[in-house]
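Researcher: Before we compare anything, I want clean individual predictions. No alignment, no superposition, just each chain on its own. First chain goes here; please echo the sequence and then give the structure tokens.
Model: Echoing the first chain and its structure:
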Amino acid sequence: MKYMKIRLEKASESYIVGVLLAVTGGFLDVYTYVCRGGVFANAQTGNIVLLGISAADGNWEQIWSYVWPILAFMAGILLTEAVRKKYRYNPGLHWRQIVIALEFVVLLCIAFVPSGPWDDMVNTLVSFVCSMQVESFRLLHGNAYATTMCTGNLRSATEQLFYYNINKDKKARNRSLQYYGIIFFFIVGAVVGTALTRMLLEKAVLVVCFLLLTVFVIMFIPPAEQTEAAYRTDGKG
């Protein structure tokens, strides 16, 4: 029987995972802004700017609403690197699945925290899990990208578009379209997140939990080289 090559990428770098996480990123950003006191969970640049405005206005109490998410983002990066170091060669769950599971549990708990006095805590926790996500999923088809913010993706997309126009390099064109696609799905997440958050309030984050659960399952798909090796072992090559 003719050997059939199955093209399964490394799941964490696949486009479907990138799309789902981009939707998640856009959703969470509007969730905290619309429902949790006007704080950005993903893009800490926005929080740093708002912190500066509060400092300039002498609104010292409001400053802490921005300081805690920034610090939580930093803590999430540190924890993610610790998880990667300890479980990188874990024969069971992939270390990225452990990160997704942690993100899922935290967001599931947040869904049952009412809006109001606990918003600062919720925003801090969302910033924490978003930093874990952006640190864990950094490559799309081998190219650097982000799932919780768009500035870098927009730069890379436009840069690759320029290279395509100059050299007619189809790979550059495809990379550009992939980046623009991720930005598009981030916007989709923001649009859907706005509508659902206004409708469901704090419970809207359960939609993100479902998306993360889907990513968790997808990551059980083996990389292409493992699948091909299995076919050869079974004598189907």
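Researcher: Okay. Second chain, same rules.
Model: Second chain and its structure:
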Amino acid sequence: MRKAISSLAAAGVLGLSMGFPTTAAADSSSRGLRADLTPIRTNNVTGSGTATVSLSGHKVTVRMTVKGLLAGVPHAAHIHVNGMGTCPTAAAATNLNGHTAISTTDGMKSYGMIGTSLTTRGDTSPASALAVTRFPVGSSYQYSRTITVNNDVASNIRAGKAVIVVHGIDYDGSGKFTNVLGPSELDPKLPQVATAPALCGTLKAMPSKSATTGY
């Protein structure tokens, strides 16, 4: 797999959300949310996970735990915004290299564009959507990071329309990324299975007593 991906190519194909915080005073309210990350079964995924988000102004602390994904490969993850605030169903599937599956763009009507890249270090903007060397690796992992998001992402989180999506699937059960679904529509140098959605969950407000529980 390539060690680096062109951020310009990612932004051009994805139609990403590129808004930035304005100089207006940030909303000082704090909110805790949770997403149950369920598998995209059309993509032959059986994993699962949970994510919690604590939002205060434009500061977001994301805690996530996942299991049951393809081992030994990076799994890109993002906060998606400006969609329907839902996860794609089997009806979103298309023909990918002769197979019925859901690509990232197939799911965008449901979960929207990338607002924040949940990288382990460095930039978290949509420009890092395919920064494969800066995403968690492995079948199971825990992720925790505090980042600053833009107005658009913060608004979607507060409105209950932000969706967390974890990518990277083992469609053919081979135990590795293959070209079974052809090249990715996001970058043809990557296989479709590397960028297809694996887990998905909408962030919903938690009861106040558990807002700081984490994972």
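Researcher: What stands out in the second chain?
Model: The CA atoms of residues 105 and 155 lie 22 Å apart. Additionally, The radius of gyration is 16 Å.
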